[in-house]
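Bench log. Compound arrived from synthesis this morning; before running ITC I wanted a structural hypothesis for how flavin-adenine dinucleotide sits in the protein. Inputs:
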Amino acid sequence: MSIQFLQRTLKNHTVLASGILGNSKDILERVYENGCGLVTLKSIGPEQRDGHKNPTVIDLGCGMINAVGLPSPGYLNMENEWAELENRNFPIIASIYGGSVDEYRRVAEYVSAKKPDFIEINISCPNSEQHGMIFGINRESSRDVVSAVKSVISIPLIVKLTPQAPDIADIAKTCEDAGADAICAINTVGPGMVIDIESGRPVLAFKKGGLSGPMIKPIAVRCVFDIYKAVSIPIIGLGGIMTGEDAIEMIMAGASLVGIGTAVRYRGIDVFKKVADEMDAWLKSHNLSHTDIKGAAHKD
Amino acid sequence: MSIQFLQRTLKNHTVLASGILGNSKDILERVYENGCGLVTLKSIGPEQRDGHKNPTVIDLGCGMINAVGLPSPGYLNMENEWAELENRNFPIIASIYGGSVDEYRRVAEYVSAKKPDFIEINISCPNSEQHGMIFGINRESSRDVVSAVKSVISIPLIVKLTPQAPDIADIAKTCEDAGADAICAINTVGPGMVIDIESGRPVLAFKKGGLSGPMIKPIAVRCVFDIYKAVSIPIIGLGGIMTGEDAIEMIMAGASLVGIGTAVRYRGIDVFKKVADEMDAWLKSHNLSHTDIKGAAHKD
Amino acid sequence: MTTKPITDQKPVMLRVTNKKMENPGYATLFFDFNLIFKPGQFIMVWIPGLDEKPYTISHHSKNKFAVTIEAKGIFSRKALTLEKGDLVGIRGPFGNGFDIRPGQNAAVVAGGCGMAPLATLVEGLPESITFIHGARSKDFILFPDRFTIPREFCTDDGSFGHKGLVTDLLAHRITHGKPLDMVYTCGPEIMMYKVFELCETHGIPCQVSLERYMRCGFGVCGACVCGKQVVCKDGPVFHSKALREMKDFNKKALLKSGKEVDLSLYFSWRCQ
Amino acid sequence: MTTKPITDQKPVMLRVTNKKMENPGYATLFFDFNLIFKPGQFIMVWIPGLDEKPYTISHHSKNKFAVTIEAKGIFSRKALTLEKGDLVGIRGPFGNGFDIRPGQNAAVVAGGCGMAPLATLVEGLPESITFIHGARSKDFILFPDRFTIPREFCTDDGSFGHKGLVTDLLAHRITHGKPLDMVYTCGPEIMMYKVFELCETHGIPCQVSLERYMRCGFGVCGACVCGKQVVCKDGPVFHSKALREMKDFNKKALLKSGKEVDLSLYFSWRCQ
Ligand SMILES: Cc1cc2nc3c(=O)[nH]c(=O)nc-3n(C[C@H](O)[C@H](O)[C@H](O)COP(=O)(O)OP(=O)(O)OC[C@H]3O[C@@H](n4cnc5c(N)ncnc54)[C@H](O)[C@@H]3O)c2cc1C
Ligand SMILES: Cc1cc2nc3c(=O)[nH]c(=O)nc-3n(C[C@H](O)[C@H](O)[C@H](O)COP(=O)(O)OP(=O)(O)OC[C@H]3O[C@@H](n4cnc5c(N)ncnc54)[C@H](O)[C@@H]3O)c2cc1C
Ligand SMILES: Cc1cc2nc3c(=O)[nH]c(=O)nc-3n(C[C@H](O)[C@H](O)[C@H](O)COP(=O)(O)O)c2cc1C
Ligand SMILES: Cc1cc2nc3c(=O)[nH]c(=O)nc-3n(C[C@H](O)[C@H](O)[C@H](O)COP(=O)(O)O)c2cc1C
Ligand code: FES
Ligand code: FES
């Protein structure tokens, strides 16, 4: 059984979230072989960037906090990877970020020419001083980035949003109007901070970091629910999905596909297959199809 | 050992969060007898209001989601309680909310005349359509409410903020400039949504609700950290505090007092005594005082 | 769906597996599920799209439990229209339950639907106990044929058993026969108060199961406070000692808004 | 402070209880803590305010463990200045560790500081194993007097033992004596690669412990991927089977930025 998403055929509804493992073709392929329908590359930026010092990723039990700091080889330094990815047998999303509208445009144009299946603009990352989030909390800047990117690319555009926007549905609608083909929600929540009391220091080297995993699921579900009411383009729902039931919940909120990130930690790299199988089993036992449940939580 | 807070003497650093048990003098007294230094009444509104239908409060394992919906007898319908509270032997914060600047002012003026020790304005509650949160995410409206209330009361003013503000430190500074005597941070996070997949319905009757408890602690700590840098008035830090170590973490972020809400569920009504004792034990074993650790996470 | 444990966290959905109309106003809904519980504890019953309310467990066996609901307001009337196969959400159990003492000389005093939480209690008590049950009329006697332990009945209208109050029968029992060592009671609060007074007069320890408006069920929101007690968590069953200090017992209750009112007003408000 | 369990979640702070300078460039830091671990696993060591890096456990007993650190860059040089009483944060252990087979005819091949993870392994292996240890010079031979099992030494400059490479000694051993049934190795990647080649030629199964830049330590961030393998989680110890398919072994590594470079470039970058 395969499914359609923006004119592409995918083997199931699961998506690898950006920033999780997605550092090379080999590992992306392994994720795909482990049941993932669509894999996202780690966000690519305008220049080479190391990201923050460690600790950058800390597990908190019911999720994680991270401030990796958008490390990236820089879009011009990835020729090997693009060459390898040309001969892939799986669909990919190339995630990108920038520090200005112009940078987003430049990176997007270059990356789009490398023919990933989709391009995703991360206008929502909270872990860097200069990059990202500011665009996604504001209507005008979201629109500017989306229009600029849309005008230079030839592949479908996904916009990844932050739950820190005062009204995420409004931002989503703005992006749709500016030409976005799909919405991805949500990026990490917060930011948060964890202080080690023995040393009196924030544990993350960057001090603050985004929250992910089970503890953010209610926020992700609410965001997808709100966005679904506001737009008619498809939504990739993610944030805390661990099981097939979580995925069903996200789809009932209005998601077309479900992204998985942090759950790789808790259920292993084959979490994609597990979630896809659990979804199928649930649907089968309830005699329902994906179409039956999509947006089902919106009925009264 | 007792401590000072805005010219009042408190027996320790723990505060009962608003909306937790604080429905009558008897139960507030019991909370005080169980080790709480300062108790907050459930937020009082401009008129009698039932709040939402059930389910209103659901435990999620690493915290709770709630949309109680600001039930209130209405400030004019509480004569019995005020009469009882007049003869109290413990300090109280009266929390209030309104739907307009004028309502805040009216409720505040009336309540202030009943001589609670402090008044707290809740400009941050996300669980009602007309009330609250909108004031706390916006600089102008926060300022207007704070100035209006400040002008009609004769007791110290605490302003309770929401983490949904795009820049909570900026709001805190605005409130300080408008006359706030202390900041209370944070109210619940989100809102979030939990959908029951069997029925396809949001579990909360109001659909969305605020998150509290351990899962929001990193966000609360970050907010207090940010606010501490921006203001010089004291901060009541709350959100997910369960143990003495959590309280120490919050104080290191910059809090003067620590609020406790959801932990009543996990550790019982005597959580206040437990947390206070654990704090003392920790400080003693580290040969440190409260003053030594306050804001300690801000050193480099 | 029924394999997940039911906890005090988010509701687990169960299908009604059976429904029994006890009389025109009472129905018992059965569920196939192995619930771990103690007599006197309660669960929150969620009808999706409507509301969620606390109910006691009225039947309990290894793989089955039931709630017995009296049609009163919107929620309970709707509950009586549920049919086999309908989905409801359950969370719990909550509260402390009865403190069951091995004593041979206990009395159980039930009023109306207050029979519900006492039923599973009675099933665990020895044959020698005194078992008193009152209702407004014969039709409202819940579980007339359920117990092997003999019951003394009374009705308001005299249509079954003694015409009068359960307290008449209890007073009689106290002065005839072996001294009672415990009285368990559930029913209208005024009735329970009378039972408590009687017990106090005769120095008999007593346990009553209280009812207040509830939201969380686990001692956080404060909706259900009664004096210094949190009914959902410290109760719903209270011993004489707590009752003596509970100045709101049979006097005051909080409305949904948190407003404190006289108990009579409380019950009339709940009509809406 | 030392009573909390150390887990793979947030760092637990421990004080250095002892420090031993092994030579001017290596120090061993001891901690009093009962860490549950398997030889070959690693922990993340956090120096508050500086950085956090992976280190293997070099000593392990019921109530003590140690890490042995070679001064290379900013972090490790700082680590060598830590003193008794200083606080560091530890999380872990992470990774799979060595797959310890009961065979009597194993060889352990250590290069330089690669001795560290092998030390606790050797202590659990039988006397009959072959134990080869190379270093740049005599001073850099780690733990010279620690083991009861005899070691064959070699140094680059001939200042101690054989002048030459560990692979010389291993090749000799392979052609003299009972057939080896397992080779465990840790050291510079080029050395491990040579050991692996030698083992492949002679059909001997082998386990090598790889090193890559790490962030999370638990298989999420992707910093440490090497071909299809996630070094922190699938490794750091890999068997011959995985190594055969690992096209980046001894060839490529990801910089901190995620940029893929030749291994030589990777190690020179890490200077900074
Ligand atoms: C711990 C606990 C256990 C409970 N167990 C049961 C149970 O096993 N079976 C059951 O039927 N109910 C039980 N209840 C009561 C139940 O939760 C509901 O309050 C009841 O079903 C009425 O709900 P409603 O929404 O239909 O009516 P409401 O709208 O709440 O009230 C409707 C009408 O009934 C009257 N009324 C409601 N409750 C009482 C009362 N206790 N005494 C006298 N009049 C009353 C009101 O005055 C009003 O006239 C329990 C309550 C608690 C707190
Ligand atoms: C699983 C694992 C276990 C480890 N266990 C230990 C251990 O027990 N003891 C230990 O000292 N280190 C160990 N390391 C390495 C350690 O994590 C650091 O990388 C090392 O201490 C250097 O860190 P630095 O920040 O000081 O230097 P960097 O700034 O990272 O590098 C400084 C210099 O050292 C060189 N260099 C770094 N690593 C190597 C290497 N592996 N081979 C050759 N040259 C190198 C660089 O080229 C550069 O010249 C381990 C690494 C991993 C992944
Ligand atoms: C370690 C880590 C790194 C991340 N890096 C990125 C990134 O580079 N770009 C991006 O858009 N999102 C990034 N994210 C966010 C995830 O893609 C995802 O939106 C978020 O973690 C919520 O999903 P989850 O709860 O399933 O992890 C990162 C998350 C984590 C945990
Ligand atoms: C059931 C419930 C009701 C609440 N009601 C109020 C309220 O009326 N007014 C208010 O300012 N905050 C209210 N809050 C928020 C708490 O006071 C507190 O800010 C929040 O729960 C975070 O603290 P915690 O994690 O310790 O619970 C409520 C929280 C809960 C869980
Ligand atoms: S129902 Fe919430 S405290 Fe009792
Ligand atoms: S260090 Fe993060 S995946 Fe290995």
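What the model suggests: The longest strand of chain A covers residues 92-96. The radius of gyration of chain A is 18 Å.
ITC booked for Thursday regardless.
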